[in-house]
Design a protein that fits this description.
With 383 residues, the protein is α/β, with parallel strands linked by helices. Helices cover 51% and strands 20% of the residues. It contains eight helices and eleven strands. The protein has a nine-stranded mixed β-sheet. The protein has a two-stranded antiparallel ribbon with strand order 10-11. The protein is rod-shaped. Residues 267-336 are annotated as: Disordered. The chain crosses the membrane at residues 225-245. Residues 333-380 form the LysM domain. Residues 327-336 have a biased composition (Polar residues). It holds the Pfam family LysM.
Length: 383
């Protein structure tokens, strides 16, 4: 005896269903489809619908009891391909979760494009979901619209309304549980990758800071060692110069020591500057350091120009002083001692050689060659 088919009693009506074709969709399914449509991350979302078609009280009633997400409908309808591999995956999912149901149609969410059909949508339906009673559910969450279309009379006909019914649906519950678990696993995996990326960035930053600190320590040690070596060299060279100058009266001890110290100082400065240029990457230099270097160069240039002017002025002054007194006596000249002068330097200036220092010393009855002072007037014998 054939069991009489009954319509669900616990239902909610959407719109104004009319005619002899009615669509009933289970509450779990419609909730899942609406949630899928609310995903703003992609332009197009889709699903495959499972259910059955029955004749009840001379009406064609379509029951939609399950749905799975259509992975090939995630990006754009132009890229939706229902080839053998896609259908194989669809039927594997159907056999796992909805073994007693058939593919009854599909669902499509297009954000901001309303629920009107176009030729592309119709072509996809006719090629992949042919047959009387196959449905298309369209939803536009942005416009808050949805509609059911049923294939009838060689075309997709829009339904004026549909019914949502409530009953126990373990098949759909099992699918949602597994899907949510996969989503959580995917999110956990993404979180893990994000944490690894953050950890890598932090590790690289720490390594960069550590390298900078080590470079600074090396430069500090190099400065200390170089300074100590320079001091030792000054002592050794100074002692040697003093020894030889003491035995050679033609050598100016003070001038030699000053020149040696200046030469070694410049060498130390060049060494430290060269080390800093080789160890410090250009990307670690700051604008403040660049400005400081520019200011130092400007000061050095200004000092050089000033020193040049001073030396020129002193030479002019000395020449003028010598020329002024040279005409007063026929057999000798008078020279006014300036700061830093020695008998050797005066001999070089007046005669062009150091050998006349002894003559100047004897002409002025100077017992010690260093006993001259600024402002003192010396007799310079004519050669």
């Amino acid at each position: 005896m054939k069991t009489e088919q009954q319509l669900p009693k616990n239902i909610r009506q959407i719109g104004s269903p009319a005619g002899h074709t009615k669509v009933y969709i289970e509450d779990y399914v419609i909730t899942f489809l609406n949630a899928l449509a609310m995903d703003h991350n992609t332009f197009v979302r889709g699903a495959i619908l499972f259910g059955e078609k029955k004749n009840i009280n001379q009406d064609t009633v379509i029951f939609i009891r399950g749905a799975i997400e259509g992975q090939n409908l995630e990006l754009d309808l132009d890229e939706a391909v229902f080839d053998d591999a896609v259908w194989r995956e669809i039927y594997q999912q159907k056999d796992r979760f909805f073994p007693d149901l058939e593919v009854i149609g599909w669902a499509l969410s297009r954000m901001g494009f309303s629920v009107r059909l176009n030729d592309k949508i119709k072509k996809t339906h006719f090629e992949n979901f042919p047959g009387e009673g196959k449905v298309l559910y369209m939803v536009d969450h942005l416009e808050q619209e949805d509609a059911f279309y049923v294939y009838r009379g060689q075309d997709l006909v829009r339904q004026n309304g549909y019914y949502i019914y409530y009953e126990r649906n373990p098949m759909m519950q099992d699918y949602l549980v597994e899907r949510n678990q996969k989503i959580r696993e995917a999110q956990s995996y993404e979180n893990m990758l994000e944490a690894k990326r953050d950890e890598k960035v932090i590790r690289q930053f720490r390594e960069k800071i550590s390298k900078t600190a080590k470079a600074n320590n090396r430069r500090g040690m190099l400065r200390k060692v170089t300074s100590a070596a320079a001091a030792a060299m000054v002592v050794v060279v100074g002692g040697s110069v003093y020894y030889y100058a003491k035995n050679d009266t033609t050598v100016n001890l003070r001038d030699m020591v000053r020149g040696a110290v200046q030469t070694m100082g410049n060498g130390v400065k060049d060494q430290i500057s060269s080390d800093e240029d080789s160890e410090i990457p250009a990307t670690l230099e700051t604008e403040a350091e660049t400005e400081e270097t520019t200011e130092e160069k400007a000061e050095t240039t200004a000092g050089t120009e000033t020193g040049t002017e001073d030396d020129s002025s002193e030479r002019t002054e000395a020449s003028s002083s010598t020329e002024a007194v040279s005409g007063n006596t026929g057999s000798s000249q008078t020279y006014t001692v300036r700061r830093g002068d020695t008998l050797v330097s005066i001999s070089v200036r007046m005669y062009g050689t150091q050998k006349k220092a002894e003559d100047i010393k004897n002409a002025n009855n100077i017992e010690n060659g260093d006993r001259i002072y600024p402002g003192q007037k010396l007799v310079i014998p004519n050669s």
